[in-house]
């Protein structure tokens, strides 16, 4: 890594550490510590998601026109103010406004940081860069949550104010680190869009919506995020507690197994996936998650007793973690490699928006998971198999450089057919 990439990754890890301090305790803080009840806590989560959904449609164009650095800095300051205000708020209105600002700031950071990573990498090194980002994020979240759990005390509101204060400081640290980064010009695959002038003209959303491969990737991404991330703390948790009789402590172990699987497997998995076609890696994730949902279903059947059900449920979360480790060096680099020059920010923002929409709709699985558990499992088994089909279909429309840049780059280096790739040129 160059100096710019090291700073970006360090700032990203510190921010994840700050977020890990507060995210697991937001519900308890609003509902119990501030005494506002479960409806107020749910409204805070809705405000958090709403801030992201409102801000992201405008983020991409600003990134492409002004560059990612000022966007990250502005988003970090906004998120810092939201976090600090949230820690000091006692009423429902200031809490909702603070959550709105915090959600918008965090959401805008995602595509802006992703664009910075794209600018500091080439198609052949991008896979490893995004894998490292995902690893550092999960490590930061895990350590932050662990330490935050030792600090919080439901009987001392000041302990929660301290947590949100630490999160606010971490966002400002990110802004300071990013301000020192010197970025090269964006490297992009030329002619990622068809040469039809009707599809390449303009700077709005129309060219992106006319880019068939990108639209297919967004549909695939929505299904991926809805079937996995959207179910972790909603439908799957409801299924575990209601159908499988999983205790809250076992659910905590399952979440820890998910994070542990990511941290342990990330770079082992990376060696296996970076030389293979991205579309087939995503398809393999669909098969792994199909197995995970089937094992989850077994945990709810009541065979083998409570210990067997707990082991099956924990295994489900671990398998999801392995799939996530395979997706982290696959999806984000593919979004960047599909983007034409000058559109990386818009493409990253569009994909981040798809992710937020999937996460917002994730709780729709709760009624099925709690009320009709076996139907819930059957639905998501089919959804996971759908990921396989969508990934293989996407692969048919990708160029060799988009689907497998590491191997394609080596073919070019060995005198094979040239692939149109623009390497970074430092400013």
Automatic annotation (TrEMBL):
Signal peptide: none annotated. Pfam families: MFS_1. Its main location: membrane. Residues 4-396 form the Major facilitator superfamily (MFS) profile domain. The keyword Signal does not apply. The keyword Nucleus does not apply. It is a multi-pass membrane protein. PANTHER family: MULTIDRUG RESISTANCE PROTEIN MDTH, RESISTANCE PROTEIN MDTM, PUTATIVE-RELATED-RELATED. This is Major facilitator superfamily (MFS) profile domain-containing protein. It comes from Streptomyces amritsarensis. The lineage of its organism: Bacteria, Bacillati, Actinomycetota, Actinomycetes, Kitasatosporales.
């Amino acid at each position: 890594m160059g100096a710019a990439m090291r700073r970006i990754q360090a700032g990203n890890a510190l921010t994840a550490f700050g977020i890990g301090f507060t995210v697991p305790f937001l519900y308890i803080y609003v509902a119990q510590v501030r005494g506002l009840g479960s409806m107020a806590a749910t409204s805070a989560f809705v405000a958090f998601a709403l801030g992201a959904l409102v801000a992201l449609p405008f983020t991409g164009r600003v990134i492409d026109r002004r560059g990612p650095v000022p966007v990250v800095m502005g988003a970090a300051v906004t998120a810092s103010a939201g976090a600090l205000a949230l820690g000091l708020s006692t009423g429902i209105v200031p809490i909702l406004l603070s959550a709105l600002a915090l959600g918008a700031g965090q959401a805008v950071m995602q595509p802006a940081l992703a664009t910075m990573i794209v600018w500091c990498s080439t198609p052949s090194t991008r896979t490893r860069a995004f894998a490292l980002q995902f690893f550092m994020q999960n490590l930061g979240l895990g350590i932050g949550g662990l330490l935050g759990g030792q600090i919080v005390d439901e009987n001392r509101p000041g302990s929660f104010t301290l947590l949100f204060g630490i999160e606010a400081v971490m966002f400002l640290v990110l802004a300071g680190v990013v301000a020192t980064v010197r970025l090269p010009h964006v490297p992009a695959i030329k002619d990622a869009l068809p040469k039809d002038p009707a599809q390449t003209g303009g700077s709005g959303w129309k060219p992106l919506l006319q880019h068939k491969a990108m639209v297919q990737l967004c549909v695939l991404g929505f299904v991926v995020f809805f079937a996995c991330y959207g179910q972790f703390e909603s439908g799957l948790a409801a299924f575990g507690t209601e159908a499988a009789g999983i205790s809250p402590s076992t659910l905590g172990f399952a979440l820890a197994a998910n994070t542990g699987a990511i941290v342990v497997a990330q770079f082992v998995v990376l060696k296996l996936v970076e030389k293979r076609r991205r579309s087939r890696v995503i398809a393999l994730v669909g098969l792994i998650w199909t197995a995970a949902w089937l094992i989850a279903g077994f945990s709810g059947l009541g065979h083998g007793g409570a210990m067997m059900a707990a082991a099956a449920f924990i295994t489900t979360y671990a398998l999801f973690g392995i799939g996530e480790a395979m997706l982290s060096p696959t999806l984000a680099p593919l979004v960047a490699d599909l983007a034409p020059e000058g559109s990386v920010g818009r493409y990253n923002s569009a994909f981040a928006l798809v992710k937020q929409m999937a996460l917002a709709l994730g709780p729709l699985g709760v009624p099925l998971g709690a009320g009709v558990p076996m139907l819930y499992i059957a639905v998501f088994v089919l959804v996971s198999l759908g990921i396989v089909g969508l990934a293989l279909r996407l692969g048919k429309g990708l160029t060799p450089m988009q689907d497998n840049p590491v191997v394609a780059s080596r073919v070019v280096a060995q005198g094979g057919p040239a692939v149109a790739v623009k390497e970074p040129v430092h400013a």
